[in-house]
């Protein structure tokens, strides 16, 4: 497990064996220290934050027995048979409860959400009745006890509404509002510094010359971080020189995590690993996945360091597979296990044994109404449109060879649950 470290003399060699993905992910996630600092924020701004402490309800929800239908409330004992009649003595509306008490043979008109008064144990929906003046005829009786929502059936006073470590989704915000919570205590968002490396990279708001490219990865990374609820700190583009990298690393070391793109392979201008070795420590640098083999994981000061490969699809795949679960953990949450489906592939898949492959694909419904998966034609790790037009990965195990169309393959949808439930 990497610790805040003294500089090391790590020298990567192509002989370093790539680590299987599962092992790399477990190792990375296990080394994350969840952030302990927390802050109180208004519920209005708490979406996608992580609860630092559990929330216990002070109240029952609903607060009182209430009707789930527009209709009439009465005591079932007063209604021995279908077609029986009762005297209508008042009404209970949502926000305006009935304040009297019911006698034998009496009923009240009651609306959905209105409090059920003493003496009423059953509500009949309006459609199954007809009123004759102040007399109600119940054509068809519901079962005794019907159409009443019990006090506290959603949340009982004293119950834990959400556990510490819960990632707040819109439905959680609504639940917290339902128990009258207007402020929550949430974990400080991880501060994640990120930058691109490469002399060929240009900002997206200017021209490019032959041999130059727009720095797309930095924008992709900013979006991935912001989607995850992280505080991203954009450190720009850093040139392919050890000096430039040293200066950038010094700045980046002050944050909780650092994510970079490019310069982690074995090329003449790939210095990320060298400088990480000098200024921090490298835990491992190769993962047995395609795309995404070169990936530097280590420490820079107290920051967790993720040096992602520069090929745009490799950057995205390694972020999704390795950085995202790590940051979820760092943010005080719990990474969900990937949702995986077994589906037939509509096209042949090319695969040589060695690395686990993440092919980009789309979920489709065939003419027979069955779900299947259709791989994108161009699978190059520089073809970012293969990610942008896809909605899932086909995951082929390391030892797999070519797969003919029609075979069942493992599919990981992109729109999967990212944040799992806390384990208490
Ligand atoms: N001899 C070997 N060469 C390569 C190997 C290998 O094992 N031996 N691995 C290949 C694999 S796999 C990958 S992935 C890449 C990763 O290399 P780097 O992380 O060093 O990335 P770069 O060389 O800096 O760039 C690769 C590619 O991506 C483009 N790029 C870089 N940054 C950005 C950016 N911010 N936005 C858009 N595009 C970017 C860059 O121009 C290159 O085309 O190495 C292989 N080589
Ligand atoms: O890992 Mo590289 O990402 O195969 O292109």
From TrEMBL:
Domain MoaB/Mog: residue ranges: 193-329
Record field: compositional bias (Basic and acidic residues): 8-22
Record has Transferase as a keyword: yes
Gene Ontology molecular function: metal ion binding; molybdopterin molybdotransferase activity
Record EC number: 2.10.1.1
Needed cofactors: Mg(2+)
Main enzyme class: transferase
Gene3D superfamilies membership: MoaB/Mog-like domain, MoeA, C-terminal, domain IV, Molybdopterin biosynthesis moea protein, domain 2, Molybdopterin biosynthesis moea protein, domain 3
Coiled coil stretches, renumbered: none
Keyword Metal-binding included in the entry's annotation: yes
Annotated catalysed reactions: adenylyl-molybdopterin + molybdate = Mo-molybdopterin + AMP + H(+)
SMART domains linked to this entry: MoCF_biosynth
Single Gene Ontology BP annotation: Mo-molybdopterin cofactor biosynthetic process
Region (Disordered): 1-22
Annotated keywords: Magnesium, Metal-binding, Molybdenum, Molybdenum cofactor biosynthesis, Transferase
Biochemical pathway: Cofactor biosynthesis; molybdopterin biosynthesis
GO cellular component, one term: cytosol
Family that this chain belongs to: Belongs to the MoeA family.
Database matches in PANTHER family: GEPHYRIN, MOLYBDOPTERIN BIOSYNTHESIS PROTEIN
Role summary: Catalyzes the insertion of molybdate into adenylated molybdopterin with the concomitant release of AMP.
Protein name, per record: Molybdopterin molybdenumtransferase
Organism: Salinisphaera shabanensis E1L3A
């Amino acid at each position: 497990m990497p610790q805040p470290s003294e500089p090391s003399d790590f020298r990567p060699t192509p002989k370093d064996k790539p680590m299987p993905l599962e092992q790399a992910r477990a190792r990375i996630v296990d080394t994350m220290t969840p952030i302990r600092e927390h802050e109180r924020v208004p519920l209005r701004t708490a979406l996608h934050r992580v609860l630092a402490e559990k929330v216990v309800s002070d109240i029952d929800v609903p607060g009182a027995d209430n009707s789930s239908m527009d209709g009439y409330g009465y005591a079932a004992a007063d209604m021995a048979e279908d077609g029986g009649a009762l005297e209508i003595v008042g009404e209970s509306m949502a926000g305006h409860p009935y304040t009297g008490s019911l006698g034998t043979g009496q009923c009240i008109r009651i609306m959905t959400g209105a409090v059920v008064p003493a003496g009423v144990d059953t509500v009949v929906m309006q459609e199954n009745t007809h009123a004759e003046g102040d007399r109600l005829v119940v054509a068809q009786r519901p079962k005794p006890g019907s159409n009443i929502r019990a006090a506290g059936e959603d949340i009982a006073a004293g119950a834990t509404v959400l556990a510490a470590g819960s990632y707040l989704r819109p439905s959680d915000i609504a639940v917290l509002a339902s128990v009258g919570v207007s402020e929550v205590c949430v974990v400080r968002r991880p501060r994640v510094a990120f930058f691109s490396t490469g002399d060929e990279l240009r900002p997206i708001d200017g021209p490019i010359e032959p041999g130059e490219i727009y720095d797309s990865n930095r924008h992709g990374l900013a979006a991935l971080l912001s989607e995850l609820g992280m505080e991203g700190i954009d450190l720009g583009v850093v040139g392919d020189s050890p000096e430039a990298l040293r200066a950038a690393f010094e700045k980046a070391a002050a944050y909780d995590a650092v994510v970079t793109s490019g310069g982690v392979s074995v090329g003449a201008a790939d210095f990320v690993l060298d400088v990480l070795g000098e200024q921090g420590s490298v835990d491992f640098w190769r993962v047995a996945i395609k795309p995404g083999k070169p990936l530097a994981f280590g420490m820079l000061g107290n920051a967790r360091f993720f040096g992602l490969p520069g090929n745009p699809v490799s950057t995205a795949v390694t972020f999704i597979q390795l950085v995202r679960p790590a940051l979820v953990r760092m943010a005080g949450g719990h990474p969900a296990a990937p949702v995986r489906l077994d589906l037939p592939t509509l096209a042949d898949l090319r695969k040589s044994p060695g690395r686990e492959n993440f092919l980009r694909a789309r979920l489709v419904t065939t003419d027979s109404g069955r779900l299947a998966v259709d791989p994108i034609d161009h699978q190059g790790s520089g073809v970012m449109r293969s990610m942008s037009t896809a909605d899932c990965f086909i995951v082929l195990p390391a030892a797999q060879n070519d797969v003919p169309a029609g075979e069942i393959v493992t599919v990981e949808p992109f729109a999967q649950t990212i944040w799992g439930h806390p384990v208490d």
